[in-house]
Amino acid sequence: MSGKMMTEGEFVVRSELGLHARPAGRFVSQATRFQSDVEVGRGEEWVNGESVLSILSLAAAQGTVLRIRASGPDSELAVSELGALIESEESD
User: What is d(CA 25, CA 32) in angstroms, rounded to the nearest whole number?
Assistant: First the structure.
C-alpha cells in the first residue's frame, strides 16, 4: 500500500456557459497549488486536472456531473475547493 490518501467527490457544473476556457484555466491554476495529484472524470473518462486542454476535452456543459479525485497529503482540501469552483455559478 502506497500510503497516499485518495479523496473523491462528485459535483455539478452550475455555470450557464459550462466549464469553458476561462474557468478551466482557473481550475488548473488552483489545482496546481495542491501537493496532491488531481484528476477530473466524466462518465468513464478521466483526465489530468492540471491540464486545461484535458479539462476542455470533457466538454462539460451546464448540468454535467464531474468527479474530482485527488491523491496526496492535501487531497480532501483539493477536492473540496476544486468542487466548489465547479459548482460556482460564475462564468467569466
Answer: 11
